[in-house]
Design a protein that fits this description.
It is a single chain. This protein is an alpha+beta fold and about 180 residues long. It has two domains: about 30 residues; about 150 residues, Beta Barrel (Lipocalin), CATH 2.40.128. About 20% of the residues lie in helices and about 50% in strands. The protein contains two helices and ten strands. It has a ten-stranded antiparallel β-barrel with strand order 1-2-3-4-5-6-7-8-9-10. The protein starts with a helix and ends with a strand.
Length: about 180
């Protein structure tokens, strides 16, 4: 009986030690910020002045140019970016918030755009394609399924260029706005 008791106690202690080590390894946090967020922060962090250039379209027969400011800052732990933007001009007033992060399980960037012109959020997934950051997403407006693609590139002179394209119900993709930003 004494031998079995010692064996049981030893087995319980070994199991407890094993679980403690496994739990500690599982709880080990990644170094902050993640390399993917370090790269993303080089694109966005700071205060920027920007112009929105809207091409001629059925909705905007003469096109149009708005101007604005956006501010991007790191979120908690440096593993998210909060981007607040506001623009005005002949196309109208626009404001919103864009939250971006890296999702390790998906191996992709995720973005949630919240705007004053629409309810809910537009959710996109992104990757770097060469030197360009490309986000893609889909949402519905009634019976219309809208696909969006945003391509952003940081030029050697520090200017940020971002082009937003959209298509409806699988149709041809069209440029809806080109944004040019310079850091203040």
């Amino acid at each position: 009986m004494i031998g079995a008791s010692r064996l049981t106690k030893s087995a319980v202690m070994a199991l407890a030690l094993f679980l403690q080590v496994a739990f500690a390894q599982e709880q080990k946090a990644p170094s902050l910020p993640l390399p993917e967020m370090q790269r993303l922060s080089k694109f966005y962090v700071g205060t920027w002045s920007y112009t929105e250039n809207y091409p001629k379209s059925a909705a905007l027969p003469n096109g149009g140019v708005n101007t604005g400011v956006y501010t991007s800052e790191l979120g908690p732990g440096g593993n998210s970016i909060f981007n607040r933007f506001h623009s005005t001009g002949p196309v109208g007033e626009s404001e919103g918030v864009l939250v971006m992060t890296w999702e390790p399980q998906e191996k992709a960037y995720k973005a949630w755009a919240f705007g004053g012109d629409f309810p809910g959020a537009i959710v996109e997934s992104g990757q770097f394609e060469g030197e360009s950051l490309v986000f893609r997403g889909e949402f519905s407006m009634g019976a219309v399924k809208v696909a969006v693609r945003n391509v952003t590139k940081l030029l050697p002179d520090g200017k940020l260029i971002s082009e937003e394209y959209s298509s409806a119900n699988g149709g041809a993709e069209k440029l809806i706005v080109r944004v040019e930003a310079v850091k203040k």
